[in-house]
Amino acid sequence: MSHNALSAPNPFSTRPADKAALENGSLFAPKFDEQGLIAAITTDAATGEVLMFAYMNAQALALTIETSQAHYWSRSRNELWHKGATSGQVQHVQDIRTDCDQDAILLKVTVEGNGASCHVGYNSCFYRSIPLGQKAEGATLAPPAEARVYDPADVYGKKD
Amino acid sequence: MSHNALSAPNPFSTRPADKAALENGSLFAPKFDEQGLIAAITTDAATGEVLMFAYMNAQALALTIETSQAHYWSRSRNELWHKGATSGQVQHVQDIRTDCDQDAILLKVTVEGNGASCHVGYNSCFYRSIPLGQKAEGATLAPPAEARVYDPADVYGKKD
After folding, report:
1. pLDDT tens digits for A11-21?
2. Interface predicted TM-score (ipTM) of this complex, two decimals
3. Which CATH number belongs to the domain containing residue B42 in this structure?
4. Rounded CA separation A128/A141 (Å)
5. How many structural domains comprise chain A?
6. Domain carrying residue A96
């Protein structure tokens, strides 16, 4: 298993200098940052809820397009991450999109297993709001509005 | 106007070493990367549609929380970006969230002006799908499924 996001070959097209071609053309030329990563937002295909935010390297993006199962690059483990390989929370991609300047990816997925996407036990990683109108200094989070949908210990073992 | 995302002071709390405190506590301690930026996903508060993806520096995040209007850091212009200042597409934040490890921000907004969020003229920046099942090499984009909702020349002038 590679431990460098840049070590796998990048099969995608070279980026054209022409901004209009990127915004209006049919050429898919995703922009990876200097670490070889592109931002990926994952939403529930049925409800539209944002489930998680992660990064992909070129290999993860290629595998996602080719297999219709979400793959990411784990920055904490420094390795290719087939979401659900451990947890059973495999994400089946219904639609994959890119944005105007092609430096971000949006996935619409249905989730296998217990149907959740967050390792803390919630359906979505975005389970806490930041109350608006407070001063940034000392800002606090509101308690989660939703309950956990599973116990992480049941999925990842007692270590986590 | 500052031209370095790191030059404004960061008023937020220092990150605790304890992962459980970040995931389960009420302390808001957002993680900015080495360039001083945190990822921000913006969705339509009514429909849940993902409108855009951008970055915030500490000042942009603080202003967003304090004013309930979305502020970002423009990486292309290297400056604080009050969304809508030019286009009239001011984003009024209804809910702002962070994720489990507090290294991403989710905004749910209502948009002023013509109601769109993409400078190319679409409601959402994610107006093109990447057809699934194709090989990554030479991958192409599908034509936009939605029509433009405004002409950028009307908003930004003829220069784009």
Report:
1. 999 999 999 99
2. 0.95
3. 3.10.20.810
4. 6
5. 1
6. 29-120
